[in-house]
């Protein structure tokens, strides 16, 4: 981290490469060494992309540390940064806080945009969803394809505990990943999220900022008991954080292996035909039930055009059936249908969904109907569902779906690589 000062730090070589770094085991040692690898993550995730690199900054200690890291990285990469800060309207101070962040960015010569959300629901989930939509839309407007988020190791630990306490959707089962696709669709099309601080503790980053004389914004709702996050934070402190971190690193490494396998499946086993129908070859697929379920989850989302997967127990149950033998007739889940044919799984958009409020024209941003809504046949009336033949005017459904799968595959591959790198010496 820029300007990190730690009296105990001694210069040595990084254990994973030849870069000079501070001695392992010290606060600054960890920050300096990871800095080096986190620059590599930024290099990899932005490779081949155009436009600015967006940094989501709330003004808290995590995202200000992220801004420092990103700024240091631009000295070498020469990429332009665009700070995005959201006035979420959930607290009276939110507007002032967004202005504070904007002033700070401008004082460093960094472009900044304030995004405003008018909450109609006050839940943290609704706020998160809205935040991702605003970030993705702003990134696309700016011609960017990468958004950096300030999640830390502390978030990984907290998320792990939260997930253990209630059933999750498959995508979030292990918590934030080093790289992932934007969780909103279609706003997040082509947008990659990267979390370069995922191996650093919140408290270490805060110590670092203090050392630089940098203040930050404290959001009291993060610790409030009425939010699950606040209750979990207290629980983490009451348990043994170091042990929890080790569990998280093990989970991240395991997940990295899964991600790599999934990335290969998406690249080698899936094709999308002209009509937007997805076909996955599942012959001799050797994968754990968890990987099969995640594979199916991604395919269902690509077929349905949904932002989120269906509930984890339903996807897992369906995966058990579809990868073995059946179903011979269509089964619908999460807005998509799936059917086994020979060695393949076929998947498409559930036409029954069109009955819910579609009034004709382009449906789902991807398909053009062939008749009136009232004519939509009952499921299983034909082999191909009513709506998959045609495409949206600008771009064929096939392109949209293939693009999403390719993007997903790349995110999984990068995530696997950096999960492994980030946790190697733990
Ligand atoms: N108001 C905001 N403006 C801009 N970016 C934000 C804002 N709030 C959060 N972020 C970004 O999101 C990151 C994660 O924030 P936080 O931990 O508060 O979210 P969360 O609700 O736990 O999210 P998630 O469910 O994605 O883990 C921050 O480090 C920052 O990069």
Automatic annotation (TrEMBL):
Ligates lysine onto the cytidine present at position 34 of the AUA codon-specific tRNA(Ile) that contains the anticodon CAU, in an ATP-dependent manner. Cytidine is converted to lysidine, thus changing the amino acid specificity of the tRNA from methionine to isoleucine. Pfam families: ATP_bind_3 (PF01171). Its EC number is 6.3.4.19. GO terms for biological process: tRNA modification. HAMAP family: tRNA_Ile_lys_synt (MF_01161). The N-terminal region contains the highly conserved SGGXDS motif, predicted to be a P-loop motif involved in ATP binding. One of its GO terms (cellular component) is cytoplasm. It is found in: Cytoplasm. ATP binds at residues 58-63. Keywords: ATP-binding, Cytoplasm, Ligase, Nucleotide-binding, tRNA processing. GO terms for molecular function: ATP binding; tRNA(Ile)-lysidine synthase activity. Residues 53-234 form the tRNA(Ile)-lysidine/2-thiocytidine synthase N-terminal domain. Belongs to the tRNA(Ile)-lysidine synthase family. It catalyses: cytidine(34) in tRNA(Ile2) + L-lysine + ATP = lysidine(34) in tRNA(Ile2) + AMP + diphosphate + H(+). The lineage of its organism: Bacteria, Pseudomonadati, Pseudomonadota, Alphaproteobacteria, Hyphomonadales. This is tRNA(Ile)-lysidine synthase.
